[in-house]
Amino acid sequence: MNHIVLYEPEIPQNTGNIMRTCVATGTKLHLIKPLGFSLSDKYVKRSGANYIDKLDYEVYENFEDFQSKNKGIYYYFTRYGRKPHTSFHYENKEHENLYFIFGKESSGIPKELLKEHLDYCMRIPMTRDVRALNLSNCCAIVIYEVLRQQNYDNLLLEEPHKGVDYLEQ
């Protein structure tokens, strides 16, 4: 199973957008405290729209609490990573839990934690003109690359509401 982990997220709109992405992709969301907002915050609800009730998520007191309850492969996203997110192979991991860990918007994942996992630190390639992409964009880019490699397993490839032949009508 695929998991997105937000380490101490600060901006409710980002988390709301990520919640929507998680529902759309069947990805579990893990939130590590402290959070920079309340989960009842109107901005989280507005960004997550009507999907929050379908979200599979858990909140943890700290990173150690998260680690003690979640076994699998951890991938860390940092602008200091030396490998692109596309350099890893996710397609044959159907029996493993894959955790994609993103840091807080202002400062990322602590250096002390990253240093312990250099082989699993990665970055999304970009020009030198931008320090970092928006957190919710990063989560979407990464989870869709993972799902692409997994052949979009369990996702609909057709629009379910208007029908397969909607454009032809």
General description of the model:
The chain is α/β, with parallel strands linked by helices and 169 residues long. The protein is built from five helices and seven strands; from the N terminus they run βαβαβαβββαβα. It has helices at residues 12-25, 42-48, 63-69, 111-115, 135-149, and strands at residues 2-7, 28-32, 57-60, 73-77, 83-84, 98-102, 121-123. It has a seven-stranded parallel β-sheet with strand order 3-2-1-6-4-7-5. Strand 1, helix 1 and strand 2 (28-32) form a beta-alpha-beta unit. It is globular. The chain starts with a strand and ends in a 20-residue tail after the last helix.
Task: Write a compact overview of the structure shown.
This protein has 169 residues and is α/β, with parallel strands linked by helices.
Jot down its keywords.
169 residues; globular; alpha/beta; 7 strands
